[in-house]
Amino acid sequence: EIRLTGWGIRDRHEVLNSFIWGPDGWLYGCQGFATPSTVGKPVDGGRVFKKGDPFPTSQEVVDGQFIDGGVFRYHPIKDRFEIVAHGFSNPWGLDFDDNGQAFISACVIPHAFHVVQGGFFHRQGGVHIHPHVYSDIRTIVDHRHRSAHGGARIYLADLLPEKYHNKFFMANIHEHALLADSLVHNGSGFIAKHYEDTVLANDPQWIGFSLEIGPDGAVYMLDWHDGDICGNKVHDKDTGRVFRLAPPETPYPTHFNLKDLNNQELVNLQFHKNDWYVRRARGILHERASKGAVNEETHIQLRKHLENQSDPGRKLRALWALHVTGGVTHEHLIDLLASEHEYIRAWAIQLLCEDMHPGDTALEKFVSMARKDSSPVVRLYLASALQRVPEASSWKIATGLLTRGEDAEDHNIPKMIWFGIEPHVTKDPSRALQLASESKIPMLTRFIVRRATAGQLLNEVVSAMTLTRSSEVRRQYLEGMRDSLLGQHDLTPPRGWKDIESELLKDEALKRLGLQVGQLFGNAEAGATQLAELANPSTPTERRIEILKIFGQESFPPAFDAIFAALDDKSLRLTALRSLAVYRNGAIAKKIVNNYSEYTDEEKSAALQTLATRRNTGSYLLTALKKEKIPRSDISSVIARQLRRVLGPSFIDWWGSMESMTKDKQLAMDRYKFLLTDAYMAGADLTNGKALFTAVCASCHKLYGEGGEIGPELTGSNRADLEYILTNMIDPNMEVADSYKLVTINTRDGRTYAGNIYREDNQRITLRIVGQDLVIPKAEILSRETSPLSMMPEGMLDALSDQQARDLIGYLKTKHPIE
Question: The pTM is what?
Answer without folding.
Answer: 0.85
